[in-house]
């Protein structure tokens, strides 16, 4: 394998992994914290991408402002969804949770098809992220480097939020034992709403910056649903480190195969998932029930 090919696989694989991480960490925390299977999580990434495109192209807002507003709008929209709909299903069966969230997903996909059509929608990039940088032996797209830096920054900020803040202490307490956390005065309802909105915002961010790697169309939420669930399953529900490592592993495997044997990239992705879950049914960093 040439140095240029290895470099391309590394950069593209890590960039793809960071997109997967930003989108799936909210899903992982939702499943680990709230014990709810949210199959509509990909709709937040889809909404972020479409809103960013609409705000920048249709309304003429600066690209950075359009991206920021799109993320904020998705986070705000997530709050009533969690409070008035999903909260009613926290103690219901997993089948009920799957049905209601997959129903939300199909509604979002239908609305996206009506508003934007079925063709792929281009999410504009800020001028600063366009073009390439010469690193000596090849040109690297600025966008790829930005996605990698953004994913690492998201990991560091989330680590501080979960491990070094009062909010993180409350989150870990609610994950370990929600009834006891409520008994000692932790407002788990507000905690769930904040965590759900934060996860939706991260998914929107991932959908926007990852639109070149995961193209944005009206079927986005359903098309990549199994991919997102695979990252959560391999990493282990509710674990920050698990989501990050699983995204690197699966993203790296799929990207490598796309370069070497494109026809087997999806096969390699899911074979890796099967192997991990055979050896670690709870995921790489998950805890046994």
What labels describe this entry?
289 residues; mainly alpha; ABC transporter involved in vitamin B12 uptake, BtuC; two-stranded antiparallel sheet; 2% strand; globular
Structure description:
It is a single chain. The longest helix has 32 residues, at 3-34. The chain starts with a helix and ends in a 10-residue tail after the last helix. 72% of the residues lie in helices and 2% in strands. Helix 10 crosses helix 11 (240-260). The chain has helices spanning 3-34, 41-58, 63-84, 94-116, 142-163, 166-176, 178-183, 188-209, 220-223, 225-235, 240-260, 265-279; strands at 132-134, 139-141. By secondary structure, it is mainly alpha-helical. 45% of the residues are buried. The protein has one domain (3-279): ABC transporter involved in vitamin B12 uptake, BtuC, CATH 1.10.3470.
Provide the fold topology:
Blueprint: H1 3-34, H2 41-58, H3 63-84, H4 94-116, E1 132-134, E2 139-141, H5 142-163, H6 166-176, H7 178-183, H8 188-209, H9 220-223, H10 225-235, H11 240-260, H12 265-279
Antiparallel strand pairs: 1-2
């Amino acid at each position: 394998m040439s140095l240029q090919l290895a470099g391309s696989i590394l950069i593209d694989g890590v960039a793809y992994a960071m997109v997967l991480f930003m989108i799936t960490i909210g899903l992982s925390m939702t499943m680990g914290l709230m014990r709810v299977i949210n199959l509509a999580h990909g709709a937040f990434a889809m909404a972020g991408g479409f809103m960013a495109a609409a705000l920048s192209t249709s309304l003429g807002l600066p690209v950075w402002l359009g991206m920021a507003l799109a993320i904020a709008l998705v986070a705000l929209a997530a709050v009533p969804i969690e409070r008035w709909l999903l909260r009613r299903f926290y103690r219901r069966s997993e089948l009920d949770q799957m049905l209601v969230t997959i129903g939300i997903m199909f509604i979002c996909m239908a609305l996206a098809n009506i508003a934007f059509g079925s063709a792929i929608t281009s999410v504009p990039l800020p001028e600063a992220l366009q073009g390439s940088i010469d690193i000596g032996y090849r040109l690297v797209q600025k966008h790829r480097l930005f996605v990698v830096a953004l994913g690492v920054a998201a990991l560091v900020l989330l680590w501080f939020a979960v491990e070094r803040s009062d909010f993180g202490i409350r989150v870990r307490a609610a994950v370990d034992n929600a009834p006891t956390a409520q008994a000692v005065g932790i407002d788990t309802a507000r905690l769930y709403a904040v965590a759900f909105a934060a996860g939706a915002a991260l998914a929107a961010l991932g959908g926007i910056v990852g639109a070149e790697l995961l193209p944005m169309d009206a079927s986005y939420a359903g098309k990549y649903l199994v991919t997102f669930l695979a990252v959560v399953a391999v990493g282990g529900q509710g674990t920050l480190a698990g989501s990050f490592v699983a995204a690197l592993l699966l993203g790296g495997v799929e990207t490598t195969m796309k370069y070497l044997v494109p026809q087997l990239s999806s096969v390699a992705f899911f074979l890796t998932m099967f192997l991990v879950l055979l050896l670690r049914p709870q995921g790489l960093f998950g805890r046994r029930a």
